[in-house]
Structures are given as C-alpha cells and as structure tokens.
Amino acid sequence: MLALAEAADQSTVLDCVSLPGEIKRREDRLAAIARAKTAIQARAKERDAHEQAEYQARLAQREARQKASGKKPGGKPPTPPQPAHARTTSST
C-alpha cells in the first residue's frame, strides 16, 4: 500500500521538473513582481505630486487674474487631481 502511495505521489511530478529549481524560480518571480510593484507605486506617487503642483499653480494663476482685474474669472475653476489609486478603481 505504501508503495502505491509513493508511486501516486511521484506520478504527479514530471521527470523534467526540479522541485528546488521550480521553487527558486517562483520565489525569484515573486521578488521581481514586488520590485515592479514598488517602482510603479513610486512613479504614481511622483505623478500625483506633479499633478497636484500643476493644480496649485493654476489656482494661484486664476486668483492672481481675479485680483488684477477685480472680477471673478469666467469659466469653471480647475478641478483637483485624483490620486492614481482613485483613478484606477473608479474606471472599473
């Protein structure tokens, strides 16, 4: 009975697959995915900061025009940027 169980266990593993090698490959892949995720998050944070700075500059420019003319500027005021994580979740 033990021999049959051992044979059944061995039959699911292909001869060409090295379990330690496969485990190492998967661990390396997970590490690469984690590095890529960190890089993507850093770029998104940088982009969010840049968009926020542009928004603040537009608000300041609008306010300066209003002070110079004494009138409320026409058109809609600029809309604040959404963080990258909000853009990805709202589009689904």
Task: Briefly characterize the structure.
This protein is mostly helical.
Could you characterize the architecture of this molecule?
The chain is mostly helical and 92 residues long. It has a domain at 18-72. The protein is built from 3 helices and no strands. It has helices at 2-11, 19-69, 84-90. The mean pLDDT is 84.
Order of helices and strands: HHH
Q: Tell me the major beta sheet.
A: none
Helix content: over 70%
Rounded to an integer in angstroms, the radius of gyration calculated over CA atoms is: 28 Å
Strand content: under 5%
Quaternary assembly: single chain
What's the shape? Answer: rod-shaped
Number of helical elements:
3
Low-confidence stretches: none
Instruction: Specify the structural class.
Output: mainly alpha
Average pLDDT number: 84
Question: How are the SSEs ordered, and which strands pair?
Answer:
Elements lengths: L1 H10 L7 H51 L14 H7 L2
Q: What attributes does this structure have?
A:
92 residues, 74% helix, 3 helices
